[in-house]
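Appendix B. Worked example

We walk through a single record from start to finish. Start with the input: the chain for Glycoside hydrolase family 15 protein, Xylophilus rhododendri, length 593.
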Amino acid sequence: MPLEQYGILGDGRAVALSGLDGAIDWWCVPNLDSPPLFNRLMDAEQGGVFAITPRGRFQSRQQYRRDSNVCETVFVTPTGTARIVESLNSGTAGRLPWAELARRVEGLEGWVEFELTIIFGRRADAASPYQSTIGKHSVFHVDRVLGVFVHGDAWQVERSDEGVRGSLRIEAGQRQLAAIVAGEDEPLVVPTVEDIDARIEISDQEWRRWTEGLKYGGPFRDEFRRSALALKLLLFSPTGAIAAAATSSLPEKIGGGKNFEYRYAWIRDAGYTVKAFLAAGANAEAKAAFTWLLKRMEEHGPQVCFTLHGQKVGPEQEIGVAGYRHSGPVRTGNLAAEQRQHGVFGDIFETASRFVDGGNILDASSAHLLARMADLCADSWRLKDHGIWELAEAEHYTNSKISCWQALARAVELADGGQLPTTCRDRWFRERDRIEAWIVENCWSEAKQSYVMYPGTEKLDASLALAVRFRFDGHDRLLGTVAALDRELSHGAFHYRYTGMREEEACFIACTFWIAEAHLLLDQEEAGTRMIRRAVDGLQAGNGVFSEMIDADTGAHLGNLPQGLSHLAHIMALDVMEQRARRETASARQSGA
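Next comes the structure step. The output line below is what the pipeline stores for this chain.
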């Protein structure tokens, strides 16, 4: 199943992928970073699946309910039309204390026969599923996970240790539920069919209520809200961590080998997501994620990424399964965890600055932590690092130096605003200016009329578009840089991460929105708006869920999904567009007055 043909379900703790064919091909229980209960996505033979599929020929279309993460898939067959409404359920008080994947089959016209297939994954042969009878319930066991299949009385089912198989004939006006309730190492509540069914609508109402609080009045209302809803699914509510993505090891190019585990919380991605939540007016989520970031920095220092429970990420290991479309390897762990990345400094200080700009206040403990981070940045900015793209070879990456400048610039501003202690304020000020002078002297190419990826190369790096958002000095040079990025890294409506990536991977979705945002911030409104519209049009193959990368020629999505960096870059670009429109409207009114 192509990645763009999956809908994403979530409950604030886990995420499931539901395809146009009626199959749940990925669901980790109970947590987003748990081993998968279903993983046909990367292990077609033994990964497991929860499929409700019409018999014979059918056509299908999938979409979310408006302003909701409840998903609907309509199946059209020669005998009739039916719909599956599905949700990872929550309740009126928030996330349920168990996992509840609810799928309601509704007859719309004529009649449709469905086949049910539930096969529990073997976790790369590390688990051997079985079923037992406990009281009146048939209970499945997969390692430490236990659960029950709850269904309406019209289903015909047969159970075995492997799973459940069954069938259903649904006619117009009828509805039947099929659901899985599960937990890990905990007593299991077994709700009634009626309660689970009702919670689909409760979940829908709660999603809509949350979305109503978002602040955006621009022309891309639905797209903005869909990206915010996708980001919300990546907020791991038990801790406040923000996962970079909800999947692992989906390839950046089929057969290319760039497959990574992204179910961790990167300081970079989490910081950017906090800013996107603040831009969207989702202050509770922004505060939770910011607090999580500060606590991890206090415990471990400026590490690159952490587990969703705040622990250090383990070494990279390969799992013995085939991978998506036989594009292995499948991995856990991540080598980036041990890298030096100066971008961490800019990310945490930009997040703090945005938080304060929203009228909020830093506590004394957080202020002293940030002051220590500013001192560390001032001491270490001259060192090489592995950059935003986490490359194997350490270099003096220009984006990393700009991130250090950004950190100290924001530290000075926070100190001047009374939010940080001022003891080292003047030192931060002088070091900030030294960084700027170093960048201007070493990282500019007269031939390219652009900042380059690192001194001594003519390679370009799309992440340098972020320098405009970071308010790095030098308007004319930034104009030249953005023009060069667009000229040399573009492919159709999208852009590659940096020079030389055309043969190795697809276009990186976030880069296009970063460059569009930079155009807007540099008063190139027509260019920025045109770029956003082209990108949004190019992403229409899916249902509003963005992966990490896209094949600009075919529209095929690649890499892990939903990818937080893609969605938050989209949100920030749309936010800048709306802010400019508001300012222009206000200016026109003043002129008219």
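Two observations about the output. The longest strand covers residues 99-119. The chain has a mean pLDDT of 94.
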